[in-house]
Amino acid sequence: MSIQQGQVGGGAPMAPAVAQAAGVRAAAFEAPSIRSRLSQVVFIGLLGLATFLFVFPFIWLISASLKTRENVFSNELFPMPLHFENYPKIFEIAPVANWFLNSVIVGLLAAATVTVSSALVAFAFAYFRFPHRNLVFGLVLASMMLPGAVIMIPNFLIWNALGQVNTLTPLWAGNLFGSAFYIFLLRQFFLGLPRELFEAARVDGASYPRMWWSIALPLTRAALIVVFIFELKASWTDLVRPLIFLRDTALFTLPQGLKSLVDRFNPQIGGQGEFHLVMAASVIVTVPMIIIFFLAQRYFVEGIATTGSKG
Amino acid sequence: MTAATASAPSRGRWRVSEETRWAFIFLLPWIVGFVIFTAGPMIASFAISFTQYNVIRPPEFVGLENYLRLLDDRRIPLALTNTAIYAVLHVPGVIILALALAMLLLRVGRAAGFFRTIFYMPTVTPAVAVGTLFLLVLAGNGVLNQALGVIGLNGPNWLSDPDWVKPGLVIMSLWTLGSTVVIYFAALRNVPLELYEAARIDGANSWQQFRNITIPFISGALFFTIIVNTIASLQIFAEVFTMFFGARSGPAQSSALFYVVYLFQKAFEDLQFGYASAMAWLLFVIVLAITAVQIRLSRRFVYYEGEDR
After folding, report:
1. Tens of pLDDT along B208-259?
2. Which end of chain A has the lower number of beta carbons within 10 A, N or C?
3. How many CB pairs under 8 A join A and B?
4. Are residues B181 and B268 in contact, defined by beta-carbon separation less than 8 angstroms?
5. How far is B169 from chain A (nearest CA, A)?
6. ipTM surpassing 0.90, yes or no?
7. B2 to chain A: nearest residue by CA?
8. For residue B274, which of B83, B77, B70 has the smallest C-alpha distance?
9. Which domains are delineated in chain A?
10. Measured between alpha carbons, how far is A164 from A246 in angstroms, rounded to an integer?
11. CA A66 to chain centre
């Protein structure tokens, strides 16, 4: 995970404001001289080149997934004819449908649990006054620095002792207890809410859980969505935990399944050469996240942009 | 539960207010999780690092043996060197390229949103898929070398030539630098335009403006991304493991043996939990040391608005 903190404010109304700010700024740069016109063309040209370089691997991925076994390592961009049959074939030779379902289940559970639990804990740090609050919060921040490798083995032993190895549980159940980065992020949002709102609710006799549920959560909906999709993405792309915890092929998640296909078919390491099928599987792993990215783009970009701004 | 019980005069220092009690209830998930899945495992990991343990038989205390073995194991310096080379190439590469792209974004007005989306898109691609895709892109006769051929360069085999494996991986890593671009773009937009105007009137050239206005103003974001990218690059695993390791070994195994890859092999392929734990603590110490140095350096370079200097 390489994303941190932020103060996204209301979230929803951000995008137009940002676009406007960009427009204003552009106007300031656009002095109507030929020289600046020319530099505009150069800038757009450079960005166009960069766009080509960033998009090209995706095109290559799709192109390779439609090639034959013989020409998957060839460099033709438009393989004719297009071999769409690679897609049904990959579902036949490996339990890709199972993997897909497993990834969906784990992703939704991981994202839902971490959002609720982190929001609870973040509210405690943002709203309540209690002894040693800063010290405890410092501990939350410090725990983000810990390399995953240090606690990987004991965590395996815990789930092993609980008889949960080779089940999907270890891939999400740890999220019931919140996650330092999301606690940090949500605390920032909660701190942005005016305290008077809560004081008024207190006067009206609202309990603390009610204040959390009926005031804090609805007002930070955008931030909760940011947390949900960040964790969905983290879970969907994770390889390490499935590798550690899952043994049966039918239980694999998509990335782990893809890894097993690479091992089986990569001719570079002596596998059978059906790499076109591996590429079809790569597309299946990649496309759902791309779709979610386009649907929730605003939240991804806002979440990241406000990260680091207070680094 | 009523307010009356909460404020009941239970004498002595253990009397807690209702607010504190509720704070504790809200904090409970984190406290439980921290004890069971972070603090406990840290202590356990430290203890295991002084034993020989493979899950099947009970752990056997071996004192400092695992740590002494770290000094003898020739793959440790190999893995550390590989990781260091990768980090030293990857971090400046990401920072410079992302900053260049963000500065371009700042100069194209409304179009910036479109380009920002494009640059960010690869970061949602699963690492395994990135690794798989770049097995094709970086292959000796792959598309990257074909492109280099067009401009008259004879590209190396990025997947098997020991000298070129790490530069190849760095090129791959640059594809997913989108989040750094987004962070820089956000930071650059906060630089007050009047400063540039004032500097221009004073006769400052573009480089001077960049050096004396842009850099100080975004130094917080720079510092943050340097630390995050450094820590992440020291722990690179999924892409490399996909491309070069696993059920069968690839041709470039020793030049792609990164620290966490080796640690994973020791732990979950060889079941040497004691040795792998010692390796993990060495990594922790290295990460802490590097971050501490970076924080120290940052005190000199990072400028915070409103700060007296």
Report:
1. 999 999 999 999 899 999 999 999 999 999 999 999 987 656 555 789 999 9
2. N
3. 324
4. no
5. 15
6. no
7. A207
8. B70
9. 89-306 (1.10.3720.10)
10. 10
11. 27
